[in-house]
Amino acid sequence: ACRPNADAYIMANDKQVFAAHAAMTGAGWRCHNLLVWNKGSPTRNRWYMKENEYTLYLWKGRARTIRNPGSKQTFMTPRPSPAEKIHSTQKPLALLDHYIQNSSEPGDFVLDPFAGSAATLVAALRAGRRAVGIEIDTEIYSRSVERLTRECEKCNAKEAS
User: Fold this and answer.
1) Which sign, positive or negative, has the C-alpha torsion 115, 39, 52, 88?
2) Is 9 helix (H, G, I), strand (E, B) or coil?
3) Which of 159, 100, 155, 149 is nearest to 127 (CA)?
């Protein structure tokens, strides 16, 4: 599904990041960096409260420099508010926009094979990228389609004015 010289961002918690790394490098991807999303407010846990989630930043083919090489490994932004939440592990638009803007150009194609709340698709549309998402849960899929419909209506209203 990826073109030659593609980047991939694979999000995982502290328990899954090592298995995800092994799977992706086993499939021919190479690791640029381990990125951190600091959510600001931790998730309660009996063995340290967890305020971070992790993103494997990978590439296949020829490595490219990100668009903003001054970006840091850690990105701080709060989780989506309860009113915005569609999915239990929903990521904030600001985080996804940051990754999309750094690794793609306007008009490029963004694929999210685990689309969940469609946050990646919304961020891609706002950044002028084409996007496709895949979601297996029919209830989450329906709510995501509603979200994307609202987003497209906003885009159409802006173009009309």
Assistant:
1) negative
2) strand
3) 100
Give the β-pairing of 6-12 and 50-60: antiparallel
Q: How many CB atoms lie within 10 A of CB 152?
A: 12
What does the alpha-carbon distance between residue 88 and residue 24 come to, in Å, rounded to a whole number? 24
Q: What is the pLDDT of residues 79-129, one digit of tens each?
A: 988 888 898 889 999 999 999 999 999 999 999 999 999 999 999 999 999
Residue 1: predicted pLDDT: 59
Residue 136, Cβ density class (10 Å: 0-12 exposed, 13-18 middle, ≥19 buried): exposed
Both structure tokens of 52: 């971070």
- b vs e for 95-104, b when ≥16 Cβ sit within 10 Å of the residue's Cβ? bbbbbbbbbb
